[in-house]
Fold this protein.
Amino acid sequence: MLFSEILGQEHIKAHLTQSVDNGRIAHAQLFVGPEGCGTLPMAIAYAQYLLCNNTRNENTSGNESCNLKFKNLSHPDLHFAFPVATNGIIKSHPVSNNFIAEWRELIDEQPYGNLFDWYKKIGIEKKQGQIGVDEAQDIVKALSLKSYEGGYKVMIIWMAEKLNTQAANKLLKLIEEPPNKTIFILIAEDEEQIINTIRSRCQVLHFPPLSEEIIKQGLIKKYAIPEDVAGKIAHEANGNFNKACDLVYHDSEDTQFEDWFIYWIRSAFQAKGNKSAIHNLISWSEDIAKTGRETQKQFLQFCLTFFRQALLINYNTNELVYMEPKSEGFKLENFAPFVHGNNILEISEELQNAIYHIERNGNSKIILTDLSIKLTRLLHKKAS
């Protein structure tokens, strides 16, 4: 992958190429950034620059056969680890090597893709993937071997916050003192979820969200869409190029989430002293509970964002609002007065608690029903 194919992040490209050119390469690096900002493509481009001895500022004029191997993600000294789980084909002890063909397809089709895109790709969207101890053993084994081409070996661990405790502890010594010419690149969206002992051993590099202009130009180049349409999508994407691509194809999961959210909110408003609306909330909770835990967590994160956007409108900071509900008969401006300083903290806390309990395998139906009843009370709370 070429640096020129990566949107924006010019200061990070310059930093990474300069570190290689000067021979000052940290053996363990942590790339942290929000979804759709380009952490994974940047890690691959950096690995290519490092392994193929390419020229300053771009992956060209280096080792041609090496660059070709990177084009297919088949370089023997480039290793990947990412969250996996059992599916219809892999029945036990799943590790990244079982899914490497699907991984290459994902990067070819959606290099800015998110965790949910990956889970859908391998058919585990109703499960919670992880990087487990079997994966850690494979990493130790792969990095204990000599480099195939006599240079560096690079291990990219995508979504490193999904390392479970046993796997993290097993990798701790290796990350602290790796074999000669071995580079770890950990990629995460939430560095706080990575255990401190690993985080403290990495050089951390923070990626900002992409600007609207960069996303707009990226969409025009990739999809040849009109500039005004690209600008509108770029604004709604809020720095996330993966979401912008989904919006081009109207393939964003946010469309389904919006329908669930609006039905939920309307039922919660009607539920005060209305038995049939209470039944609607319980039925809604049962329906959402039938989806996978990853879907439930993504939906609740979407709800958090929706409430925050409504709060911004309520406090007249419309320039920070990027959401545009597509459902007929629902306007964010009409909903905004019900989200205010007297209930937003409690709403946010209840949603985050629900995400926490779902992630730890609590009963989804009970968690969502409890959340719905609390939301009914909070939405009717008066602004002070």
Q: What stands out?
A: DSSP finds 17 helices and five strands in the chain.
